Amino acid sequence: MNKDKEHKKKKSNKVYLIHTFGLGDSAMALDAINTLMKYEKNVEIICKEKSALDYLSYMNIAVKNFSLVRFLCSLISTKFFSNKTPVVIRSAGGSDKSNKMLAILLQFLNVEYFYDNKEKLSYDPCILLPQRVSSNLSTIQSYLEMHNYINKISVMPTNNSSAVNITSINYLNNYDNSFLKKMNNINEIIFHFGNTEKYNKVLNSSKIKFIVNLYRNIYPNSRFSIIFGPRELQTNDIYIDLFDDVISSKEISDFLDQSDKYDLCVCNDTGIGHILSQNQIKVDLWINSNSNVFLHKIMCKNTNQIIVI
Predict the structure, then answer these.
(1) How far apart are CA 45 and CA 18, in angstroms?
(2) Three-state DSSP state, 227
(3) In this predicted model, what pLDDT tens digit does every residue of 102-161 receive, in sequence order?
C-alpha cells in the first residue's frame, strides 16, 4: 500500500506552527514552511512579531497574530470537537522554559509537540559548524519524517560554497581590499546595520564607517542606500552622510516590491539580509567579532561572503 493511500485512511491532522521569532527567522523558515504546507493542507501559522507576520503574508502564506488564549481555544476545539488531530510545531523561537511549559500542557491534552532544545555546544563567538539554517527548523523535518511524508527535506542555504568565504579582520589596521570578494555589475547596494543588543550583533559607528568606505573604494560608481528598521536607535545620523539614499519607516511589502533593483546587500545578521537573499540578491554578512552567534544558523540563502570584524 502506498503512502498516499495510508494517509487517506487515517484521521487528518491540523498543524499549528508557532513562529515567535522575527523577520530573519521567518525568511529562513520559508522553504521549510512551504514544504510542510505541500504535505499538510490544514496548517495554521501563528506569528508573534509583526515583521514576521507581514513578511509571510507578503509571500502568500496565511498567518495569524499570536494570541495564547485564541491558540488554546482553537487547539481544544480541534482536539475535542472536530474530525482532525491537532499537532503543534515550534519553527523558531521560544525559551527552554516556555517550551517545557507548553510541552507539559500539550502532554496533558495528549497532543504531539515538536520543538527543539537549545544545542549543547561551546558558545564561542562565530563558530562555523556544518551548515543548517536553524536547529529549530529541524522540528518541521522531524514532523514530516515521523509521519512518513518524506525522508529528508533541505532547510540549508543553497550556496554551500559560501562556507569557505569567511574572513576575519582587524579594522583598526590598514587593510587593502583584497580580502573582499568583489562581484561584477554591482550598480545598487543596500546597507542595513541592525541595532539589536541580542547576541552582541551591533556594529559600532567606527566599524560601520570602515565598511561603507571599503565598499566605496571597491564600487566607486555604485549607488549606496541604507534602510533603517524600527529597532534602530536614533544614532544613525553619525554615518547618514555616507549614503546616497536613506530609507526609513517603510512597510516590508513596499520595500520588497522595489528590492529587485539592488544587486548586493551588505548587513550584519539582520532580517533584511535574509529576506533579500530569498529574492536572489547576494548578501555580504559582516559579523561583530564578539558576537555570540553560530555562523551555520545565520547563513543567508545567497551569501556571497562572511567577514568577522
Answers:
(1) 6
(2) strand
(3) 889 999 999 999 887 554 434 444 444 333 334 556 778 788 888 887 665 554 444 444
Q: List the domains of the chain with CATH numbers.
A: 3-146 (3.40.50), 160-308 (3.40.50.2000)
Burial class of residue 87, CB neighbours in 10 A (0-12, 13-18, 19+): buried
> Which pTM does this prediction carry?
0.80
215-256 residue pLDDT tens: 999 999 999 999 987 666 555 566 778 899 988 878 889 999
Q: For residue 94, which phi and psi values (nearest 5 degrees)?
A: 100, 130
Which uninterrupted H or E stretch holds 223? strand 223-228
Q: Determine if residue 34 is left, alpha or beta; phi over 0 gives left, psi from -120 to 50 gives alpha, anything else beta.
A: alpha
